[in-house]
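Supplementary Text 2. Reproducibility record for the structural model of the 139-residue chain.

All settings were left at their defaults, and a single model was retained for analysis rather than an ensemble. We include the record here because the model underlies the residue-level annotations in Supplementary Table 4.
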Amino acid sequence: YIRTNICVITKIFSLEDVGTFFAANINIRNSKKKWLSNLQSEGEVIIDDGAASALMKDGKSLLPAGMIGVSGVFKIGDPITIVDKNKVRVAVGISNFTSTQLTKIIGCQTSEIATVLGSACAGTVVHRDNLVCTENKGE
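Retained model, structure tokens:
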């Protein structure tokens, strides 16, 4: 048994055809987005129309300047729901800040975050790589 496996492994490394190859049909990016969209939200960030457009149409990250409110209590790394001013779900993502920190930086420019919070930290509330927009804003 062991000798057979060694022979097969040797043939594989020699680039010989051995057996049948099944390529994975997985897109890592899509898998992450699917995972993100199914997370249980720990809180909510309310954003203005400009931020909603930047997320949904332009695929941008969420910046503090676009926030107009925060609800719930959450930690860095927790999933949050992003809603527009009418409380319609726009996206879900992983927060780079605590809810307490976000409350302090609502409407701030990225360059002001370190001054307001007293320490260097992330420049985005939710980075676009950790965010998934709802496909149909009405749902």
